[in-house]
Design a protein that fits this description.
Layout: H1 9-26, H2 40-59, H3 72-94, H4 99-103, H5 112-128, H6 131-158
Helix pairs in contact: 1-2, 1-3, 2-6, 3-5, 5-6
Length: about 160
């Protein structure tokens, strides 16, 4: 439940799936994006969760592919959510770069840029049976999803 030290190639793949679109986004931010009003407590949760998730997912080998078992379904579900995450980024990049477009739901999932990877990491933690990743996903979820919801609410107030 605590995890086994070692490199996780699955973790590296997940982080690349997370970081590459975010790097592209940093050059294509919404034209009306203003992070100055973000809640500092939520930002603290987000940053702490990012560090904990990154360390857990890279340096614990429990997420690497094992012989198929009932636990493998958690990995499959997790990876499916990461694929949806990538598709939601594609949708953003091929459309107008506005906050409204960035935060709109995808396949019925609210704030997909925050919700999908958090849910994927949570399921990956369940697959690996690693409490550290499960807890880290909850921590980052509080901050990251909370911040995205605040941005979405601000957009709705303007409209």
């Amino acid at each position: 439940m605590l995890g086994h030290l070692g490199f996780s190639y699955v973790g590296l793949i997940y982080l690349l799936m997370l970081w590459i679109p975010n790097a592209i986004w940093s050059k294509n931010k919404p034209i009306d994006y203003n992070p100055s009003q973000e809640n500092k407590i939520l930002l603290l949760f987000e940053r702490a969760g990012q560090v904990c998730c990154t360390c857990s997912i890279l340096f614990l080998s429990d997420y690497n592919i094992a012989p198929f078992s009932v636990w493998s379904w958690w990995l499959i579900a997790s990876f499916f959510l990461m694929i949806l995450y990538e598709i939601s980024w594609i949708r953003y990049f091929i459309n107008e770069h506005t906050e409204e477009n960035f935060y709109r739901s995808f396949c019925g999932i609210p704030v997909p840029g925050a919700s999908l990877p958090v849910m994927a990491f949570l399921l990956l933690g369940i697959y690996g049976k690693v409490i550290w990743l499960i807890a880290s996903a909850i921590i980052i979820g509080i901050g990251h999803i909370g911040i995205h919801i605040q941005h979405l609410q601000a957009i709705k107030r303007v409209l």
